[in-house]
Amino acid sequence: MNDTDRPEPLSHGLYIVATPIGNLGDITLRAKETLARCDAVACEDTRVTAKLLRHLEISKPLWRYDDHAGEKDRARLLDAMRSQAVVLVSDAGTPLISDPGYRLVSEARAEGIPVTSLPGPSAPIMALTLSGLPSDRFLFAGFLPNKDKARRDVLEELASVRTTLVFFETAPRLGKSLEAIGEVLPGREVAVARELTKLYEECRAGSPEELARHYEANPPRGEIVLLIGPPVAEEASEADADALLREALTTMKASQAAGQVSKLTGLDRKVLYARAMELRGE
Ligand code: SAM
């Protein structure tokens, strides 16, 4: 390689780079360019990242930065970032999302080191977009705990949250989690997103009981994101509907009142119309 082929070096700082969650074709153009131009790559498992870099035909020093990294490892990385461009990747997906990096970013920012993040694949976001569950609001809660009591406690804590819930899950624990969801959050729709972007990608939705039966008969393999739909709006009681109809009837005809209250409550328009006529006759 001569000097004109060598990529321009990057300015110093921390570059958080998302990498594929299975399909190597999902690396972004910016991720590839940044990996080619950086000085070093901090990663969880050097063998995993070496494989990605080989695929991209890039060779860089790899520095281990995993869950066991301590103050000293961090201090060494921060020191390097003062004069060099250091990329942070995880084994797959977006760093910091149930992966190492939070302390590194927080300390780099506190020390005035430039930090930027290159967005890309992330399993919880892909799962949410595939699941068919409401995506306007969601709560991502990492891995459900391993122990039965702790798992139920987390589900109980989140029971009143009116958003889709997104968790990481493992194949051996899926059955127990589905069982707990059926007991603690009955009536919720659930989705299991498995092996995303890979050959056997699937996203299966249903009740926790249906999914538990399916996966008991077909033990799941691979990586999993588990999603739980929000609580369904409680049906308005007859008394609520009557109150709303009475109020609506003060300014509109029975048919219009029935239409408006139907929209508000989800109750059947014809039933509401009949009730509005009764109320008018009272
Ligand atoms: N930071 C990563 C991200 O942004 O996707 C997630 C890292 S977390 C330690 C690993 C978990 O993500 C797996 O146990 C699994 O629950 C989920 N996951 C990762 N890749 C996946 C895939 N291809 N399909 C389904 N779930 C996946």
Characterize this entry briefly.
The chain is α/β, with parallel strands linked by helices.
How is the secondary structure organized here?
Layout: E1 13-17, H1 29-37, E2 40-43, H2 46-55, E3 62-64, H3 71-81, E4 85-88, H4 102-110, E5 115-118, H5 123-131, E6 138-143, H6 148-158, E7 164-170, H7 174-184, E8 190-194, E9 202-206, H8 208-217, E10 223-228, H9 238-249, H10 254-265, H11 269-281
Parallel strand pairs: 1-4, 1-5, 2-3, 2-4, 6-7
Antiparallel strand pairs: 7-10, 8-9, 8-10
Helix pairs in contact: 3-4, 6-7, 7-8, 9-10, 9-11, 10-11
The protein binds S-adenosylmethionine.
3D structure, described in words:
With about 280 residues, the chain is of the alpha/beta class. The chain has eleven helices and ten strands. The strands form two sheets. It has a five-stranded parallel beta sheet, with helices on both faces. The longest helix has 13 residues, at about 270-280. S-adenosylmethionine (SAM) binds near residues 21, 93, 97, 170 and 195.
* Shape estimate: elongated
The biggest sheet, with number of strands, parallel, antiparallel or mixed sense and barrel status, is: 5 strands, parallel
Low-pLDDT ranges? none
* Beta-strand percentage range: 15-25%
Tally of strands: 10
Radius of gyration over all CA atoms, rounded: 26 Å
Helix and strand run:
EHEHEHEHEHEHEHEEHEHHH
CATH superfamily of the largest domain: Tetrapyrrole methylase, N-terminal domain
Helical residue percent band: 40-55%
Total discrete domains: 3
**CATH architectural name of the largest domain:** 3-Layer(aba) Sandwich
Mean pLDDT: 94
User: What kind of oligomer do you see?
Assistant: single chain
CATH topology of the largest domain: Cobalt-precorrin-4 Transmethylase, domain 1
The small molecules bound here are:
S-adenosylmethionine
Structural class: alpha/beta
Q: How far apart are the termini?
A: 92 Å
Assign the CATH class of the largest domain. Alpha Beta
Strand order of the largest sheet: 3-2-4-1-5
Total number of helices: 11
